[in-house]
Amino acid sequence: MNPLSDFIHKRAQEYQAPAAMTHVVYGYPSIQESLDWMRALLTQGVDILEVQFPFSDPVADGPTIVSACHKALESQPNMAQCLRDIEEFSQTFSSSKILLMSYLNPVYRFGVTKLVKAAAQAGIHGLILPDLPIEQAREYKAACQANGIDPVWLITPATPSKRIAMIAQQATGMLYCVSRSGVTGQKESESITHKKTTGKCSLEDYLASIRQHTLSEDKNVPLAVGFGIRTPEQVSDLTGLAEVAIIGSALLEAYNTGKGQTGKEKAGLELVRSLFPYLKQT
Known about the structure:
single chain; 282 residues; alpha/beta; two-stranded antiparallel ribbon
């Protein structure tokens, strides 16, 4: 039994729809404002909160999140303080799960094994390191296993089938399935299509190619789909195909339309409620 996996399956089954995973950059627009925004999302009842520790060169992210990371770095965020802040949320909002996302540079500066241990102690259930190849992750995987925390691996439409099988077979907690090649925040027209069209892989086929390696008698790793999700129809299309829908750039863009912290939170929460009307406030 895996706590994160079991939690996700239970929520998706309860909703008969994907669980909600939202993304926040720690320190954007300021550290306190980012903490206020996290609290607002958790109070809204999001199932999973992904907290990104900012880095100057976030290679998998599009311009919206890159800009937020650069702004966040002006506050000189500290990984140890970030973990302490998350620990408070994990204790207060025990009905949600929190994941930490970071690029390797800040992780190496802090220490790989040290970070995994500290994250587990802070109540974090999973770690996402998008620029760490699984083949070079021996220390990281050992630390995760020793501390009971899930390394969340990414799969993209460009991932070869043999590599999909290798990653999926090692996965625990959940798999992050990137909905199309490129960076975060691209529009729907640039994503994998839900229906079969000439020259494009369907979302059904793509996720089925992953699912065949994650489902067995003793294992059922949930699939989380992100990159480019921004409409209720896209979330609805994932029902029966994936257990989690991830909103990142679209949420940040909605947040940025608001005036002042109250307006920003209101604008962001309106998007969350429109995409996930079944969430229960805490």
